[in-house]
Write a structure and sequence with these properties.
Helix content is 15%, strand content 36%. It starts with 20 loop residues before the first helix and ends with a strand. A hairpin with a 4-residue loop joins strand 1 and strand 2.
Amino acid sequence: MPTETFVDLAQIDLEQTLYGRTDLDRHLAQRGTFQVVDRIVYEDPGNGVIVGIKDIRADDWWAQDHIPGRPMFPGALMIETAAQIASFDYALHRTKPDAIGKRFVGFGGVDHARFRGMVTPGCRMVFVIKLIRAGSRMFRYGVQAFTERDGVVGADSVFDAEVLGVIL
């Protein structure tokens, strides 16, 4: 993955909400504990960039057991969060309006995943997702994720990867 960030996070208001739970549910099939994306705060459809937020809370379902006494947000859930944000962008900006809700976007894979820091309760993960390629049956997005604590976003990504989606 590139060392240069996909977007300048200092220029984005991470407190705003462009798309909340109702919007996310309209385009994502995951429910219950697997509704891992909290909101979308930025989009630039022309450049294929979208930024989503996942608040990392001590009362999240995974926190008690992944790692007792020292909870860490699981890498598998980082991948899931990134895949959901990419799927949301694909459904919202890369499909025809009449196809919304009629086609299922499935997880197709992950490449080049790297985890570079511990993500613990009390922070917010900021996922920056950038379109690499989109076709009618498959898509690929680059992912960079940062932590924000006390209003400060870390300079280095704690997770990056490429996620693939398949239209079923």
